[in-house]
Amino acid sequence: MRAKVIENENGRRVAVEVCTEPCAIERGMRIIGGKWTGSILYHLKDGPVRFNDLARMVGGASKKMITERLRHLEDHGMIKREVVATSPVSVEYEITDFGSTAICILDELRQWSEKVRFQTE
């Protein structure tokens, strides 16, 4: 069902058939739409990455923000975290099969963004 705006008997515009819960687009954006989230997923698409390397790849984001985004993605089953028994101990992050399903969306967004960039310059 799709929400609509109509005029009521008093001539006022009102919304009808409104969503009572987030629509599919909103649910998806809540998972991958946060700042740095898409970049983090995109950097994990080619294989496991250690935390510090990931922090270097996602320039401009603080380690605290990267940690928050990684926890968010892990909570949603998009990535997995593995503690590596090295000296010193390190942590690697890897995209899950479910997380990989978002890569095509992010790649389309990347291509669209590149086109938009050239149209606005």
From TrEMBL:
Classification via Pfam families: HxlR (PF01638)
Record's keyword terms, sorted: DNA-binding, Transcription, Transcription regulation
Keyword Acetylation: no
Gene3D superfamilies membership: Winged helix-like DNA-binding domain superfamily/Winged helix DNA-binding domain
Record GO terms (molecular function): DNA binding
InterPro entries linked: HTH_HxlR (IPR002577), WH-like_DNA-bd_sf (IPR036388), WH_DNA-bd_sf (IPR036390)
Top-rank taxon: Bacteria
Name under which the protein is recorded: Putative HTH-type transcriptional regulator YdeP
Keyword Transcription tagged: yes
Domain called HTH hxlR-type: residue spans: 23-121
